[in-house]
């Protein structure tokens, strides 16, 4: 069975390759005049560098074997689905609250105050995106 650190490096490399190869479908441009493919290509290159570092590191450390917790995966999937449903029918602020309070059920310690602070912080960030960048997120 593969180790956690090796699996994490391989997953990060797969994500980097996926986005890097898809970024090549767009014009990259030059450093003086960026194209739409440059930013995703740079980010995916950084992910690939991190993935290689993680894979090299995984050869020298001992990590626990890879283990999937189906319950936690289901909780995170339910949190994402709840976010989409509540955002669609209510607004994004309520969706963020549902996402945070549901997703933290997958953790080891549940603190409603911490969850409220995280949700409030994410709502402030979403409001900033909406007001400063002109995005139509439907926060309120």
Summarize the structure.
The chain is mainly α and 140 residues long. It is 68% helix and 0% strand. The protein is flat.
Q: What are the SSEs and their pairings?
A:
Layout (H helix, E strand, L loop, with lengths): L3 H20 L14 H21 L11 H20 L2 H12 L8 H22 L7
Helix pairs in contact: 1-2, 3-4, 4-5
Which terms summarize this structure?
mainly alpha, 140 residues
Give a verbal description of the structure:
The chain has 140 residues and is mostly helical. It folds into two domains: 4-58; 70-133, no CATH class. Helices cover 68% and strands 0% of the residues. The chain has five helices and no strands. It has helices at 4-23, 38-58, 70-89, 92-103, 112-133. Helix 1 (4-23) packs antiparallel against helix 2, helix 3 packs antiparallel against helix 4 and helix 4 packs antiparallel against helix 5 (112-133). The N and C termini lie far apart (47 Å). The mean pLDDT is 90.
């Amino acid at each position: 069975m593969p180790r956690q650190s090796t699996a994490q490096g391989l997953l990060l490399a797969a994500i980097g390759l996926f986005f890097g190869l898809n970024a090549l479908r767009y014009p990259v441009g030059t450093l003086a005049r960026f194209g739409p493919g440059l930013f995703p290509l740079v980010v995916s290159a950084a992910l690939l560098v991190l993935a290689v570092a993680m894979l090299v590191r995984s050869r020298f450390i001992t990590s626990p074997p890879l283990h999937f917790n189906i319950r936690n995966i289901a909780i995170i999937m339910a949190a994402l689905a709840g976010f989409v449903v509540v955002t669609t029918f209510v607004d994004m602020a309520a969706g963020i609250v549902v996402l945070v309070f549901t997703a933290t059920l997958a953790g080891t310690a549940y603190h409603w105050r911490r969850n409220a602070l995280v949700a409030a912080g994410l709502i402030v960030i979403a409001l900033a995106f909406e007001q400063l960048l002109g995005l139509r997120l439907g926060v309120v």
